[in-house]
Every structure is written in structure tokens, then in C-alpha cells.
Design a protein that fits this description.
2 domains; 330 residues; globular; four-stranded mixed beta sheet; alpha/beta; 15% strand; Spore Coat Polysaccharide Biosynthesis Protein SpsA, Chain A
Length: 330
């Protein structure tokens, strides 16, 4: 590990935003200091966390080995940008404060980047830790297939877990840093722009991190809100990036699809709240893009016998894997 007081620039700057994770950050930092690759600095940004007293107590044993930056809350994107502004490394390694790395993570990622100077960003598979479910891997649930191009990221053929990403600082800066106006999925937006502005992206199928999924306030807990964020990011890309005609078609079609999925989730909420007419309207609007038989049946049933249809759909989803895109109203 590079001494934080040394004038020599480290190879890697490890960027850790911290918010409400005082009880988890020691495990996170221990995993960083256990890396077999040692030429790094660690930047922890306290993003206006409500547990600041506990966080600073948890950080006390590490204070001589980290750059600690407290700031008013700017959400994850703002915290990452603050750290990037202070980063001295050629490479940026992103790690959320409730996640951790396996010891070989940095060594593998830096070797990939140094062996191929054309690469701008690399990521990896990771174990997903959820105390209420068996351990699985990120790529089992969110596969990466083929080349991680701009188009592949748009349609989520390649999905990137932020806590496994190591990128050239120059590639992130060229893409314009993280968008601090986004409340969710700022990392997805960042990878989209990084790819669009020319950074080649590669990935390792070896699990190199542990992603903690147990916090009830995690941004990833709400499917509806996540889908809304994805669709708005894609609409933003269509408006702000100089896309080719082919790229624009891919982005706009995907945005329309994700918006339709969002409408389905909103419709399910209306069903649970006993508003079948509102649910029918949302399902009908979603089906104007998706054109599925199941949605057509749901819409027609809700029109003819709204209360009976509501109960039937709820029961069907409960026993057919609710939350999946191929359930009765998807």
C-alpha cells in the first residue's frame, strides 16, 4: 500500500463512498488492505452520513492509511466525483462501503489493463451475499455475453457491478465524470458514456468481490424505481449524446421497453392497492409497446371483471415467480 503522505503517486486510487455503513466499512477496508497488489491509495468520502460519529469511530484504526473526506450529502455520484478530484492514481478502483474484494481483485484487474493499453475499463463477476437467500454470483443473475460495447450495455447484454470496476482515470474524465443529478443508477450512466466516448471494456468471469444485498434501504431494492431510473438515463443518452442512427434506434427502443416494464410494475402496485382500473390503464399502455398475449389477457380481464381478474393475477404471480419479467403481466 502506498503511504498517503508519500509524494510518489500510487498506481491505483481506491474510491469508497460511505453512507450509513459504519457497521460494514471495517470489513470493506480490511479487504482492500488484504490485496496482493499493493500500490494504491484509499479515499473514503463520508457523504453527509447520518452515522458520522459511528463511521469516524470505525475508521479510526485506518486513519493513517486512508484519505478521509467528509462532505455534505451529494449522493453516490457526488461522493465518487469528489474522490476522483483528489485521486492521484492512473487507475480508479471503485468499491461501495458495504461491499468487499477478494485478495486477488486488484492484481487481476491491473494486469488486464496493463497487458492491453487499449482497454479503458474492466470489471468482474462477484459473489452476491444475501442473508435471506443462498449465495449466488452476479453474472448468474445478470449475465455478460460477448463484447462489452456501448450497445451491449444499453440492452444489458453486459451488466457491470460497480464494486468490481477498475478504470483508467483518463477514460472516466473524458466521459464527463458521474452525473450528480441522478438519484439512482449513476454508475450505469457512467459506464454507458465511458463506452460511448471510446473506452474499450473487458471483463473477468472469475468472482473477485462480495456484493452485500442485505440493506433494506439499498437503492437496488425497488424494481420499479430502478427501471424508472434506467429508462430516464436512456432517454437522457438519446438527447445528449451524438448517437449514430443505428445507436439511436437501439437506445430509443430499449428506453421504450424499460418504460413499459416500469408501467407493469406500477400496475402491480395499483392491483395491490385495490385499484384495478388504474392497473388496467397502466397494463394497456405497457402493452402498446410490448404486445404480449399475457398482457392482452390481463387488460381484457380487468376490463370485463376487474375484481375477479385482480385476485386471479395476484394469485398467479405469487405462484409463478412474482418479480420476473415473464410473469402473467409481463
Amino acid at each position: 500500500m502506498t503511504n498517503t503522505s508519500s509524494s510518489a503517486a500510487p498506481k491505483v486510487s481506491v474510491i469508497i463512498p460511505a453512507y450509513n455503513t459504519a457497521n460494514l466499512i471495517a470489513n470493506c477496508l480490511d479487504s482492500v488492505f488484504a490485496q496482493t497488489f499493493r500500490d494504491f491509495e484509499v479515499i473514503v468520502v463520508n457523504d453527509g452520513s447520518p452515522d458520522t460519529i459511528q463511521l469516524e469511530q470505525a475508521l479510526q484504526p485506518y486513519r493513517s492509511r486512508v484519505v478521509y473526506i467528509p462532505q455534505e450529502n451529494k449522493r453516490a455520484a457526488g461522493a465518487r466525483n469528489t474522490a476522483i478530484g483528489k485521486a492521484r492514481g492512473e487507475f480508479l478502483a471503485f468499491l461501495d462501503s458495504d461491499d468487499s474484494w477478494l485478495p486477488v481483485h486488484l492484481a487481476i484487474q491491473i494486469k488486464l489493463l496493463e497487458d492491453d493499453p487499449s482497454l479503458g475499463l474492466v470489471y468482474a463477476d462477484a459473489f452476491q451475499v444475501n442473508h435471506s437467500a443462498p449465495e449466488t454470483t452476479f453474472m448468474k443473475n445478470c449475465p455478460s455475453e460477448g463484447s462489452a460495447t456501448f450497445e451491449a450495455i444499453v440492452v444489458e447484454r453486459c451488466q457491470i457491478p460497480v464494486s468490481t470496476v477498475v478504470a483508467r482515470k483518463s477514460a472516466i474524465v473524458k466521459a464527463g465524470l458521474f452525473d450528480e443529478t441522478l438519484a439512482r443508477c449513476d454508475d450505469y450512466d457512467m459506464w454507458l458514456r465511458t463506452a460511448f466516448f471510446g473506452a474499450r471494456i473487458a471483463y473477468s468471469r472469475k468472482p473477485q468481490a462480495r456484493l452485500y444485498l442485505g440493506r433494506p434501504d439499498s437503492l437496488g431494492q425497488s424494481r420499479s424505481k430502478m427501471m424508472e431510473a434506467y429508462w430516464k438515463i436512456l432517454e437522457k443518452a438519446a438527447k445528449t449524446l451524438p448517437l449514430s442512427a443505428e445507436q439511436r434506434s437501439v437506445v430509443e427502443n430499449r428506453a421504450a421497453e424499460i418504460r413499459a416494464r416500469h408501467l407493469i410494475e406500477q400496475g402491480k402496485v395499483q392491483l395491490r392497492q385495490q385499484h384495478p382500473e388504474k392497473a388496467r390503464e397502466l397494463f394497456a399502455e405497457a402493452n402498446s409497446h410490448l404486445h404480449t398475449l399475457k398482457l392482452s389477457i390481463a387488460v381484457r380481464s380487468l376490463q370485463l371483471a376487474p375484481r375477479s381478474a385482480s385476485r386471479l393475477i395476484a394469485v398467479w404471480n405469487r405462484f409463478s415467480g412474482a418479480g420476473r419479467y415473464d410473469d402473467v403481466v409481463a
